[in-house]
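Hi R.,

Here's the chain you asked about this morning:
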Amino acid sequence: MRILEWMLVLVTVAVTVCILLFPKRRAMTIGILSALVLAVLLHGLINSFRVQMAPTYMVGLVLFITLIIQLMKLYRSDRYVQSTQKHNRRSWIKKTLVSILVLAFSVGSFILTWLLPAFTMPEPTGTFAIGTFSQHLVDESREETKTPEAGDKRELMINVWYPVDQEAAQGLPLEHYPSELGEAISLVFGIPSQVFSYLDTIPTHVVKGAGMSATQSKYPVLLFSPGIRSARFQSMTMIEELVSHGYIVVGIDHPYTSARVTFPDGRAVPYEADPDFATSEELYQYNVEGIGIRAADARFVLDTLTQWNSHDPNQLLEGKLDLAHVGIVGHSYGGATTAEALAQDERFQAGLSLEGGFWGTVSTKALKQPFMYIMSGGTAKSLEPDATAKDKVFYPEFEPDLDRVMTSSLNDTYYLTVENFFHQSFTDISLISPKMFARGMTPEHNVDITRSYALAFFDRYLKGEEQPLLQGSLAKFPEATYDAQYTKIRNEQAQ
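And the predicted structure, written out as C-alpha cells:
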C-alpha cells in the first residue's frame, strides 16, 4: 500500500470518528471536509485511482455527502448544534455499527492492495538504457485465415526495444505498463480486467524518442513470442534485462491467439478460444496449424527486420541489426513458436522455450541450433507417472515429442527445472501479486531466475561468452536444476 493510499484510509477513519463523536460545528465540518477532499485529490493525482481502493472510495463518497448535508444544515440554522444534541443524538449501538462498517471497508482496501500492490520493477543489471517504438506490420504474402472477409492479409503488432545511452535517456518520461496486460491477465486467470486497470500507472525503465546507442556498431537480435491469451508485454523484466545488456528485442502480438490486439486505426482483434475437439489427435493437429501460423509470423518479422537493416522507414535500426546473431524466445504457446521457428528457419541461431509445447516440424526434425527448455517444478511433478493431478498445460503427445526433440538435436541442449515455479511464473505475474503468485520466494527472485537464465543462454550462443549458469546449478538459484538426460553439450567447438 502506497503512502497516499494509507493517508486516504486514515483520513476516512478520522473523518468518521469526528462525525460520530464530536459536536457538529461549522468550522470543524469545513475542516474535515477539506481534509477529505485534499486526501482524495492527492491520491488521485499522484498515485492514480485503482479498483483495489474501491471500498475506501465508497466510504469517502458517503462521508462527503454526509458532510455536505451537515454543512448545509449548519448554515440554515445556528440552533442546529443544540437541537441535534437534544433530539437527533444517535445511539452508541448505531455509532458502533457505523464504525465497524467503516473499518471493514478500510480493511477491505488494505487486503486488496496487499494482494495486488503497486509494485516497482526491478532494475535491469546492464549498462544500457532502453528505448522502444511500436509498429503495425502487414504480410502481403499471406491471407488471414481467421477473418470472414476473403483477401484479408495477415497483420501483426510489434514492439522493438533497443539499447540507448544512459545520458540520452535522461529527462525523457518513462513508459508505463500498457493496459493490454490487464486484458491478458483476465483471460489467463479469469479475473475481471478492471482489477488490473492500475497497471498503466506502473513505470517501466523504457523511454520513447531516444536514439540508439552508438557504443556498438550493431546489436544481436531477439524475437519474443508471448503465451496464448497473453501480450508482447507479458515479460517486461526479461526484455528490459536483455536490452540493457545490448540486445535488440522484438516482441510480437499474434492476432487471435494473443490477447486483444489493437491496431493504430482503432481496430481490435480479440483472442479466439479454441473449438472443442473429440480427440487429443484433433486438438494436436489444430495446434500444429496454429503454431505454423505463429512460426510464419516470426519468419515474416525477421524478413522485415532484414529489410529495415538496409532501409529503415523509422531511420533508427538501419545498419544496427546484427542479423548474423539472431535468437528467439517464447513462453508457453510462444515457446512452441520458438521451437518450430528453429526447425523451419536456420536464420534463428538459438532458441529458448519457457515451458512450451512441440507442434509441427520440430517434433520430427533434428534441431541444428542450440536449444534451451525451462520447465516449472509444478508442471514437472504433474508429469510423473504416479502423479494424481495432471497439469492441463500439456497434452498426451508432449512427453514423446519432448524426448525426440531433446535427444535427436544436433547441437547443445539444456533442460532446466525450477522448483516452486508454475506455468505463469515465467511472466511478471509474481510482481503483480506476490501473495498469490510468488510461491516460496520473493517476486524479485522469481523474475530474476527467468531473466538471468535467458541472458546467460543468449550471451553464450549469440555473443560467445562463457556462462557459469549454463555449466551447472549455482547457489544463487537453488531452485534450478539441470536434467542430465536432456542437457547435452554436443558442439565442443562452442566450449
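Residues 70 and 235 are 51 Å apart (CA to CA).

Let me know if you need anything else.
M.
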